[in-house]
Specification:
InterPro entries: FucosylTrfase_pln (IPR024709), GDP-Fuc_O-FucTrfase (IPR019378). This protein has 611 residues and is α/β, with parallel strands linked by helices. It is built from 28 helices and 13 strands. Helix 17 crosses helix 24 and helix 26 runs antiparallel to helix 27.
């Protein structure tokens, strides 16, 4: 190619921001880009000024520098720039900017949105985007916003409703004050190194949790060191999780350091000791425990107890009731933060630090919190604990009401395994149902929620195992409340993989999301429902709906009752069953972990005088 200086026209190219191009006239731009020609006519003073010699490299680069500086100033201060200040078209509509800022730290999306994102990737949406820059910006924008849980398509905000109103907590807050005698005795108890209590706990996660609480109390009664409880392999689910898989072991030891000495294993001095074994009867007292085991424990050095479920009395001396509360899982961060912000509540804050011995392990806690945040990102949510698993229908002696096919499955299982039946065997199914001993099915849960004023667009998290009948069993709820999610719906791909086939860990995740909900309701009583009831009380008596099954079911069976009348009656039956403070002492045999007032909570006037 010829390189004749005389014939070839030499051009200089400069990279200039598009905003500058829009603001400079074409003639001015032309004068900047083209090399100046030698004037054939007599030069004017202006021509002399612009008649630069670009053969000088220093002058050429100086010119580029000043043009670039001008471009940066123009780009930075021109408020009328027609481009978004956010790259890649990820700017939000004005009405969603505030919610995006609030959820900036959240991982974001419900899994249905995530599935659409991953499907889009699989179908090559991002590859096709290279053919059109503007199209790719739109796709990337939507994907990024959806992954952050943003309301791209103008999804309706959860309707404001009386349903979300919280009960009056009457000023009750957690407060533990052990007696002087208890504190004086603690010094000797925590130094104990001769006597050791070993326990084997059974059942599901919540059942194990209750037995661990009582194991700590029994160790205190006997003045023994507690070996970290052994979790028996679950017969139904085959879960082999150990204590440290579910709970934070070091935290457990640290919080109880002033109450009971906790060790991970028997010391070498006691390994060859044959332990004294026992299984206490139901509802034993501290005096029975001492009379039965203390002398032999002092002699042998090791006591092994099995089957502690409901073995220890619900009515214990005040200090031991407080110890039960202290062992319970910690309150959540939102309550603690509130106390920190209020300098007048330093007494409650110091209590909060101790009120958390049985806290979930870090991986469980982190995923549970993430899922709860995803539910919370669009407003308040309701959590349901649905007891619709096959074994629940078998054990309660009830029928799911789906179809004759499933009723026959339950009846056959009950005949083959009669020991599973835990309800009163001399009662028929209908008698159990009217006595309030059966779990609510999906139709009944739906009618109850509608009667209590749950908005149709309410966001609902449901916890529990796979229902008998699968998704079909949940259709009444899904059809009425379309924002209906489980942990499997909300978890991102791979998040639940570490917990696969570990029913106790999955139950712990459900527990966390349910406890953090604005409203909680179980379809049937049980260990999880009772634990969450007490936990929500500690958190300030957050709304907890207790279905009044015995009184409301006759109205469910009355098909001639108009819906408006039905709703009014059912709502009236539950006006005192919404999580308001209840004294444990008002009814015999109540568990302090379910009803923490008055042993573990006190109201404003009482707490101020004590602090």
């Amino acid at each position: 190619m010829a390189k004749s200086k005389n014939k070839a026209k030499k051009l200089s190219y400069i990279s200039v921001p598009s905003q500058i191009i829009n603001s400079i006239s074409s003639s001015s731009l032309q004068s900047l880009l083209e090399s100046p020609k030698k004037s054939s006519s007599r030069p004017t003073s202006m021509n002399k000024f612009f008649n630069f010699n670009f053969t000088s490299p220093r002058l050429f680069f100086s010119t580029l520098f000043f043009i670039g500086l001008f471009g940066m100033i123009k780009f930075g201060f021109d408020v009328d720039i027609p481009f978004s200040p956010y790259p890649c078209s990820i700017s939000l509509p004005q009405q969603h900017q505030h919610s995006q800022l609030q959820s900036k730290s959240k991982l974001g999306a419900l899994s249905k949105v995530d599935e659409s994102v991953h499907n889009a990737e699989k179908e090559g949406v991002f590859n096709a985007a290279t053919n059109s820059l503007s199209q790719s910006h739109t796709v990337v924008s939507n994907v990024q916003l959806q992954a952050r849980g943003s309301n791209v398509d103008g999804e309706e905000v959860v309707e404001k409703s009386e349903f979300w109103k919280q009960p009056n907590g009457l000023g009750y807050k957690p407060c533990l004050e052990f007696s002087r005698d208890y504190r004086m005795a603690s010094e000797g108890v925590v130094k104990e190194r001769r006597k050791y209590l070993m326990v084997v706990v059974s059942g599901g996660m919540n059942q194990q949790r209750n037995q661990i609480v009582d194991a700590v109390v029994i160790a205190r009664i006997l003045g023994a060191s507690l070996v970290v409880p052994i979790l028996q392999v679950n017969v139904i689910w085959g879960d082999e999780s150990e204590f440290a898989d579910i709970f934070d072991l070091e935290h457990f030891k640290r919080v109880l350091a002033n109450d009971v000495h906790v060790v991970s294993a028997l010391p070498s001095t006691h390994l060859m000791t044959k332990p004294v074994e026992g299984s206490p009867p139901l509802h034993v007292t501290p005096s029975w425990i001492r009379a039965r085991y203390l002398k032999r424990l002092n002699r042998e050095g090791v006591l092994l107890l099995r089957g502690l479920d409901s073995r220890l009395s619900k009515d214990l001396p005040s200090d031991l009731q407080k110890l039960r509360c202290k062992v319970l899982q910690s309150l959540f961060v939102h309550w603690k933060t509130k106390q920190i912000a209020d300098s007048k509540c330093s007494f409650h804050l110091s209590f909060q630090v101790a009120f958390n011995a049985l806290r979930f392990a870090k991986p469980v806690l982190e995923l549970g919190n993430k899922i709860a945040e995803r539910m919370k990102s669009k407003g308040p949510y309701l959590a349901l604990h649905l007891r619709m698993e096959k074994d629940v229908w078998v054990r309660t002696g009830c029928l799911p009401g789906l179809s004759p096919k499933y009723d026959e499955i339950v009846n056959n299982e009950r005949i083959q395994r009669p020991k599973l039946l835990t309800a009163r065997s001399n009662m028929t199914y209908h008698e159990r149902k009217l006595a309030g001993l059966c779990p609510l099915n999906a139709v009944e849960v739906t009618r109850l929620l509608k009667a209590l004023g749950a908005p149709k667009n309410a966001r609902i998290y449901w916890a529990g195992g796979e229902p008998l009948g699968g998704k079909e069993a949940l259709y009444p709820l899904i059809n009425e409340f379309q924002h209906f999610y489980s942990k499997a719906d909300l978890a991102l791909p791979g998040e639940l993989e570490p917990f696969k086939n570990k029913a106790s860990l999955l139950a712990a995740i459900d527990y966390i999301v349910c406890e953090k909900s604005d409203v909680f309701m179980p379809s049937h009583g049980g260990n999880m429902g009772h634990a969450i009831q007490g936990h929500r009380a500690y958190a300030g008596h957050k709304k907890y709906i207790t279905p009044n099954k015995r009184q409301m079911l006759p109205y469910f069976l009355n098909s001639s009752l108009p819906e408006a009348e039905f709703n009014k009656i059912v709502k009236g039956l539950h006006q005192d069953s919404l999580g308001q403070p209840e004294l444990r002492t008002s009814k015999a045999g109540r568990d302090v972990t379910k009803y923490p007032v008055p042993e573990c909570m006190c109201n404003g006037s009482r707490s101020r005088s004590r602090s």
